[in-house]
Structure formats: C-alpha cells, structure tokens
Amino acid sequence: MIDHVSIAVRDLSRARRFYEAVLGAIGYSRLEVRPTTVAFGKRYSEFWLNHRPNMAPIDPEAGIHICLRAASRAVVDAFHAAALAAGGTSDGVPGFRPQHGEGYYAAFIRDPDGNRIEAVTFVKG
What we know:
The chain is an alpha/beta fold. It has two helices and eight strands, in the order E-H-E-E-E-E-H-E-E-E.
C-alpha cells in the first residue's frame, strides 16, 4: 500500500552513514544519491532521507514512527545493534511485544535526529 517514505534529517552525511549501517542490517542498500536526498531500498528506492538543515529538534512525544519488516529475529537484533553502534539510541530493545499480537518481535531505535524507526518480524508459535 505504501510505496516509499521520506524523513527529514539535519546532517545528510551523518544520516547517510547511520542508515547505511542500520538499513544494511535488514537488507537495504543505498540506491540513489542527490544533492539534498539519499534513497535506500531492496529493489527500488523505498526509504528517503531529505536534508533539512534548519529543522527544529524532533519532539519524542510527537515525532515520526516508521516500522520496517525484517526477515527474522536475528535480523531485528542486528538492526538494533547496528543502530547503537552507529550512534543511535535504543527506544525499545529487541523482544516480543504481545500487546501488538502473537509472535510480534520488534526493536525500536532513534536516529541521531530523533526519528523513531522500528524493525519487526512475526514469529510463528
């Protein structure tokens, strides 16, 4: 249903490096680079970074939340670890979230700009 998403970042170079590591952990690669935007995806550009150097800090209570599908628990774990190693912060360690449904296994991170990104997989019981 959704073709692609875009998020705003203050420092495009820093965000590109961060997302190369984090999205690389779930199978995305950098597909396009333009002067003020960078795109990642598996086969086509699905996740865009847009340079907004003057944007206000993101309010953690009202900020963006994007969830990306992962192939397995190990991939969710790798996504979380890559985010922390690349300068992000944890917003929810990898684990089951029964409040979201049976087998819902996810991790939540915040990028250096405060965007909240989740990776999820569904484990058959």
